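Final report, closing paragraph on structural work. Over the funding period we assembled a curated collection of sequence-structure pairs, and we close with a single example.
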Amino acid sequence: YINTVGAMINSIDKLPNADEVKLGDDLEVLLLYNTYLEYPKEKQEQITNRDKLLELVSIVEDFHKVENVINFINSLPSLNDLTYKDKELVDYAISKYNELKDYSKTLVSNIDVLKKLEEKIVELELLETYKANALVVVNLINKLPSNITVADKELLDECFDAYEKLTDEEK
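Its predicted structure, as stored:
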């Protein structure tokens, strides 16, 4: 516990500058910050370099967010194992990545994996749409009686019309 303002100022001075801080510095920064928070407001205001401390706290908190995003991306299914059911997980990872500050985004070492997963989800989403549209036609065909007669012409025309509306991919 640092009990004087002068000792706190000296401890903050010893911390790396914002452009030099690394993830390994987080414990020291956060311990100092917790000590700072225990000071009464009037003592906090006497700490002339508290802006440096607050900036470093913000940076190391961002480091933790980056670490969480990297770990979450690593926990996602591989490109080969990805299914449409994984869409929410991929979307969540993208949202957490997008919440990062611009400089923090550059620290996400596996962003290329996330981008490939996102592209595959778009493809899988398109396939789901194709399946849904094709299923409409299949359901219409299943409504046809086993012995088609002239009386079934309207239902048969409906099947053909629905089929013709399908794209080549859906067919």
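Helices lie at 5-14, 26-38, 41-46, 50-75, 87-99, 102-105, 111-142, 153-165. Residues 13 and 156 are 82 Å apart (CA to CA). We thank the funder for supporting this effort.
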